[in-house]
Amino acid sequence: MAAASLGFSQDRLQKIDRFIADRYIGPGKIPCAQIQVLRGGELAHEAVLGMADVERGRKLEADAIFRIYSMTKPITSIALMMLVEEGAIALDDPVHRHIPDWKDLGVFQAGLPGQFLTTVPERPMQVVDLLRHTSGLTYGFQNRTNVDSAYRKLKVAEVYGGRDLAGFIAQLAELPLEFSPGTAWNYSVSTDVVGYLVGKVSGMAFEDFLKTRIFEPLGMADTGFHVRPGEEKRLAACYQALPGGGMKLQDDPEKSPYLAPPTMVSGGGGLVSTAADYARFCRMLLNRGELDGARLIAPRTLALMTANHLPGGTDLTQMSRSLFSESTNAGVGFGLGFATVFEPARTLLPSSRGEYYWGGMASTAFWVDPVEEVAVVFMTQLMPSSTYAIRRELRTLVYSALMETNG
Fold it and tell me: Is the pTM of the predicted complex or chain greater than 0.70?
């Protein structure tokens, strides 16, 4: 369908492609970019730019497979909320009801890694804390605290060559929390724990639940925890930004660990996918939980997920302790698996109240705007995601092309 019939200016949409090509791909800042802009479930614009493998001179194709890292989190969160709808688990359940070994988790006070002085938390960790990252868990890569250091030393959440999902949960039982649950926001392995709960509560392996309950109903054939046999040549290379500019190969697609099943199935960052597959997921979200006759969750459940759940109605600038780049804006809260905009003007970006989004470590991103019925999927492969402001720029470019608005 023509972009103009969906309320977009075709000329302005084409400026997105030129901007990305001239600003980022031409100078060698990022290897590639694939962009899908949807409105009302229809594809308004798609761009496929750059190289899937710079070293081998392989151009990016529309069916390329990308490491989506933390864009896994919304999918895992939807999976848990499907079980909430079935009454198998509740948001206010204490986590130790489902993981008994976590009943006595303490909050870090002082000490060296491995020698922790802890206190009793103000209240037990609840399932909702895992979904909104107020659990007190952390990521080792943040390099801020002794707890982070302990995560690194024990290689917590190492996907390849480490422990399996059950071993990961047992490992966390040995470590203190960074803060009392519900008192702060910290980007963390919480969604990996959500994946474990999906498996335990459903009685299925977590990866099987995603495949049978989400990917197959939505037609997301290329999404999984490793590249399917026979599809290896579709995996894009992943790159690391260099301090002085440019990039170097970080994960060779012909030798990538993503070509084989992982040791630990990571609900927080383990999936590979395509732009088309993730657009299917976004279409389901735009359509309030249903796509092509397959309903995953009810509209009210999705509304609950995309509301701001930060205590006191605060935003991430007030609640966050994290060193993270997936959300940096004032006026942005956090729901159950997504960042959510509740004061658009404070973001200093064109956006809508109730818009929700997230991104991945290799600079991938998506957002869903229920007011304008717009969804955007952005794929590339450059780490870390904080290197460039390309996500913010993309938002401005897309909304600058939207001529017929609902807001």
Answer: yes
